[in-house]
Amino acid sequence: MFSSAWRSVATNIETQLTAAYFRGSSNKLRLQLRIAIPSGAGSIRRRFLAVPPKLRKVGLRGMHSTLEDVKLESMQVKILPALQDNYMYLIVDNKTREAAVVDPVDPELVIKTVQEANVTLSKVLTTHHHWDHAGGNEKLVKLWEKELEVYGGDDRIGALNKMVRQDDSFTIGSLNVRCLSTPCHTTGHICYHVTAGDGKGEGAVFTGDTLFQGGCGRFFEGTPEEMYEALCTKLSALPDTTKVFCGHEYTLQNMSFARHVEPDNESIQQRIEWAKLRRASQDPTVPSTIGEEKIWNPFMRVHEASVQKHAGGATDPIITMGKLRKEKDNFKA
Fold first, then answer.
1. 91 in a structural domain
2. 185 an active-site residue?
3. Residue in 130, 189, 193, 310 annotated catalytic
4. Among the options 93, 103, 106, 132, which is catalytic?
5. Domain range holding 144?
6. Number of domains present in the structure of the chain
7. Known catalytic membership, residue 248
8. What is the mean pLDDT of the chain?
9. N or C, which end of the chain has less CB nearby within 10 Å?
10. Are β-strands 204-208 and 190-195 bridged in parallel, bridged antiparallel, or unpaired?
11. Coil, helix or strand at residue 42
């Protein structure tokens, strides 16, 4: 009976636990819980949960997705699940074995993966300052035995030592990285476009909370105009074959809204069925591609008549963007 009660409580507290940990804590976090036990099942009025400082897995129940490797011609991307639905990514240059990590909120898992892969970690790519993306930066820098370059576009990012702006560039071994400034979710949000040094082969873009598979981030610090610029001008201009690695496992929720917007779009329904199979075995649904997002993501389809009609009929894509986001904020799948 206690284990059943605990399961119902665990779902509600796991996010708070991880948030408290990454915001800073002592050796143990202690949360006082009141658990209601049915009459006759014994008397357990209060329990105290001692949470160890290493929250490697999601909450207390295991990773939300399997660890996977995506192999491209010039690079390997290791998909690392974190927290309740976040993704971190280890980017490895195939030629030099130099590596960079994107949004390392779980430093211990990052270090373990780097050591097992026998690669040289030199850089941290931070998409934005929110704790579930940047909250592990300072700890990783402290734990890592060598100096790390920590990139980002916002001085609210912990351990930042390489501030970047639109079109700034750097390298990961032989790979080229171009920074795309995509303010809206936060004012300092950066997406990272990674390509081979010779420009050949598939590229990858790490979009944090700007572009999700089938959706986009909330407009916490921005406007519909800014999200339109980010999605429909900057990211849409990347090659259609570019792999999209986003910050969260939100695909089924987002695609449910996409189907609501365009119920006759067969590509959306096909992706939903595919994603259901993936999630049934806890496999990640990332990556998609820029070309695919143009086919099924309503926020990248604000020029389409079907999407504009759903949003009230206005032919201005920016008005459509704003109305879609407002509707999505209150949408229940």
1. yes
2. yes
3. 130
4. 132
5. 68-330
6. 1
7. yes
8. 86
9. C
10. antiparallel
11. coil
Indicate if 129 belongs to the active site: no
The model's pLDDT over 5-63, given as tens digits with 9 standing for 90+, comes to 444 444 344 434 444 444 443 333 333 333 333 333 333 233 223 333 334 344 334 68
Quick one: what percent of the chain has pLDDT higher than 70? 81
- The active-site residue out of 93, 103, 106, 209 is 209
Active site residue 310: no
Domain presence at residue 42:
no
| CB of 307 closer than 8 Å to CB of 294 | no
Residue 62: inside a domain, yes or no? no
Is 103 a residue of the active site?
no
Q: Distance (Å, rounded) from C-alpha 241 to C-alpha 226?
A: 24
What is the bridge-based pairing of β-strands 243-246 and 288-289? Answer: antiparallel
DSSP-assigned letters across all residues of 44-84: --EEEEEE-S---SSTTT--SS--EEEE-SSEEEEEEEETT
Flag whether 174 is in a domain. Answer: yes
d(CA 242, CA 239): 6
pLDDT value of residue 37: 33
List of residues 6+ apart from 106 with CB closer than 8 A: 55, 56, 80, 82, 83, 88, 136
Greatest alpha-carbon span in the chain = 71
Q: What pLDDT score does 291 carry?
A: 98
193 included as an active-site residue: no
User: 64, 93, 103, 128: which is the annotated catalytic residue?
Assistant: 128
CATH classification at residue 227: 3.60.15.10
- Which listed residue (133, 189, 193, 310) is catalytic? 133
User: Does the active-site annotation cover 260?
Assistant: no
Catalytic residue chosen out of the listed positions 129, 185, 189, 310: 185
